[in-house]
Amino acid sequence: MLLNCYQNELLEAGCDEAGRGCLAGPVFAAAVILPSDFIAGELTDSKKLTHKQRCNLRVIIEREAIAWAVAEVDHLEIDKINILNASFLAMHRAVEKLAVRPEYLSIDGNRFKAYPNIPHTCIVKGDGKYLNIAAASILAKTHRDEFMENISIQYPHYQWHQNKGYPTIVHRMAALEHGLSPFHRKTFTISNPQLALFSENEG
């Protein structure tokens, strides 16, 4: 069973990102402050849930959270500052957009660039341990998926409505055949045969 948050003394926001391993599109991040009595039976790491479960949970989270925000860093910025820094920047932007300022941040993963004047803790696989990080993973994933589905209409070759920009074989072959779209990250290798394949649920 997931705990509500990492610590209980300070008002805490859970933070997570989606889209780090993609070849195209922005990286999205979310920050979520949940009430202490928040309950959502299915809520866990977004990668363990179905698309329908994630969409249902998104409605609950956005309705019941004390505050939530989603932000993005686009492919052009990713190419300029690299994907790791872009992930940190996206999380900073999400925290900045929160209607209620948190006093503490719990971050999914093992690295983070400190947000000014707010202490934080990095938690490996935190989206499977704490509800506020799991909620952030749901919002980041569903908002990013929605973005990729929308631009897939304009660029159907790459089948982003299915792979969401991850380096599936279909996506990579389409990029080699048709060239790169304006949304592709130019600093990512499309054709490297050693490139790990990611499922569409990874974020």
Helix fraction by DSSP (H/I, runs of at least 4): 25-40%
Order of helices and strands: EEHEHHEEHHH
Average pLDDT metric:
92
Task: Please indicate the percent range of residues in DSSP E strands (runs of 2 or more).
Answer: 5-15%
Inertia-based shape: globular
Oligomeric form of this entry?
single chain
Determine the N-to-C terminus distance: 22 Å
Give the count of helical stretches: 6
Radius of gyration: 17 Å
Can you put this structure into words, describing what you see?
This protein is of the alpha/beta class and 203 residues long. The chain has a domain at 12-146: Nucleotidyltransferase, domain 5 (2-Layer Sandwich). The chain has six helices and five strands. A five-stranded mixed β-sheet has the order 3-2-1-4-5, with helices on both faces. A hairpin with an 8-residue loop joins strand 1 and strand 2. Helix 1 (51-64) packs across helix 4 (131-152) and helix 2 packs across helix 3 (83-97). Mean pLDDT is 92; it is low at 193-203.
Quick take:
This protein is α/β, with parallel strands linked by helices.
